[in-house]
Write a structure and sequence with these properties.
Layout lengths: L9 H7 L25 H8 L14 H14 L1 H6 L5 H4 L8 H12 L14 H10 L4
Length: 141
């Protein structure tokens, strides 16, 4: 199992970081090619769906591979910050989220930060699909 060290080279980090949460201890992390996940019982499944228990139930919402990729990118992007605080758990310093497209990321950020009645000021020079979304698709207050 890989143990993160801020002293590791970028080559080691690219290869191994984020791959230490493998329940079957395989040498290479498996690719989870499933749409849904099983639960040991109904109560556990209900907890996972309600997000009161850790786990996965539907791959479009989350799966181990997406979490691993997000963690790997966050650590690689934040390696300078992590190296400044070597005693800290890297997961407490950096985090990431992956999306299927740029517009999925942009709309997720907007929806998470804005509430009804908020105003967005944007220039036309922003990414054209973002401007179109803001001008023509986003609900108006």
């Amino acid at each position: 199992m890989y143990h993160f060290s801020a002293k590791h080279s970028i080559n080691t980090l690219v290869t191994h970081v984020g791959e230490d949460n493998n329940p079957h201890h395989t040498h290479v992390s498996p690719i989870y090619q499933t749409s849904t996940f099983n639960f040991p019982d109904v109560a556990t499944g209900a907890g996972i769906v309600a997000r009161t228990e850790p786990g996965y139930y539907y791959t479009r919402l989350a799966n181990p591979n997406l979490d691993q990729l997000a963690r790997k990118i966050a650590i690689l992007e934040g390696i300078d910050l992590i190296r400044l605080q070597p005693e800290a758990d890297p997961n407490s310093l950096v985090a990431g989220q992956v999306f299927s497209s740029g517009m999925a990321a942009i709309t997720s950020v907007l929806f998470s930060l804005l509430k009804a009645g908020d105003t967005i000021v944007a220039q036309e020079a922003v990414y054209s699909a973002t401007f179109t979304f803001l001008k023509e698709i986003a609900p108006r207050g």
